[in-house]
Structure formats: C-alpha cells, structure tokens
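Morning F.,

Quick status update on the modeling queue. The single chain you submitted on Monday has been processed. Sequence for confirmation:
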Amino acid sequence: MERKTTLAEIKGKYPFQNVTLANLAEVNPVVIHWMLISQPVARWQAEEVIEVLSMITEENYSLDTVDVVLAET
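Structure tokens below.
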C-alpha cells in the first residue's frame, strides 16, 4: 500500500492559511491545526477539509490518500 501524504506535506506543496482553509471547509480553525499535528478530528471535518483542498489544488485527495487521525465515534 502506498504511503499516505500528510496535511503538513500538502501545506508545504500548496501553502495555505489555516483560517482561510477552515472558513472554506466550514470548520473551526483549530481543526486544521489538529490535522497538521496528527490529532484526532471528526470524520465529517476531515472530509470537508480534504474536499476543499482537492478543489483548491486540483489534486484528487481523499481519506484514502491523506493521513488523518479520525476521532472515535
């Protein structure tokens, strides 16, 4: 299985402001921070952030390709 990329690696390739990404994804800015430092976030939050990143970067990101720690439900 191919190694997943991290949000930090994506940010290195496509610099973004955490608050701007959070606003576009309609999540609290702390969610972006947690994702950057591999802290758990809700699945819906991760999906929203990744969906917005895919649109902005024109890359095909998903939970299958981005390493995200999901909170247990």
